[in-house]
TrEMBL record:
This is Band 4.1-like protein 4A. Signal peptide: none annotated. Pfam families: FERM_M, FERM_N. It is found in: Cytoplasm, Cytoskeleton. The keyword Plastid does not apply. The lineage of its organism: Eukaryota, Metazoa, Chordata, Craniata, Vertebrata. One of its GO terms (cellular component) is cytoskeleton. Residues 1-159 form the FERM domain.
Length: 159
């Protein structure tokens, strides 16, 4: 309880090998599900809303500030963490996404995870194993498959 938030944050950043740390933080929820960011300058005991929830205490890693242009981020691991956060925010409905954009983003996610489309490996309906948006429809999955086929040769980090 006497540990500063900055020590906990540093431990997390080291654990995931993150260098561009200014964008990230740890958040927690109080008993009424109100979200707070862990203040690096305070001890854990000074975060009253956190202390009242445990032990155990649950902290969530996340992006505090989005980069204006994620392509300008220096580290691939930072870009990957941004990708994971956006993917989760779209899936959970926190970040609204039109169907055409969801199809493009889904295709890039599939390309980064599965690589190039292979008709022998990727049989019809292979996208249905993945979740991208709340209430995902078959039409979206078919659009993702169509776009994925056009992304041949794109490396995971590029996608």
């Amino acid at each position: 309880k006497s540990t500063k938030g900055s020590v906990v944050l540093d431990h997390v950043f080291r654990h995931i090998n993150l260098v561009e740390i200014d964008y990230f933080g740890l958040r927690y929820c109080d008993r009424s599900h109100q979200t707070y960011w862990l203040d690096p300058a305070k001890t854990l005991a000074e975060h009253k809303e956190l202390i009242n929830t445990g032990p155990p205490y649950t902290l969530y890693f996340g992006i505090k500030f989005y980069a204006e242009d994620p392509c300008k981020l220096k580290e691939e691991i930072t870009r990957y963490q941004f990708f994971l956060q956006v993917k989760q925010d779209v899936l959970q409905g926190r970040l609204p996404c039109p169907v055409n954009i969801a199809a493009q983003l889904g295709a890039y996610a599939i390309q980064s995870e599965l690589g190039d489309y292979d008709p022998y490996t990727h049989t019809a309906g292979y996208v249905s194993e993945y979740r991208f948006v709340p209430d995902q429809k078959e039409e979206l999955e078919e659009a993702i498959e169509r776009i994925h086929k056009t992304l041949m040769g794109q490396a995971p980090s590029e996608a």
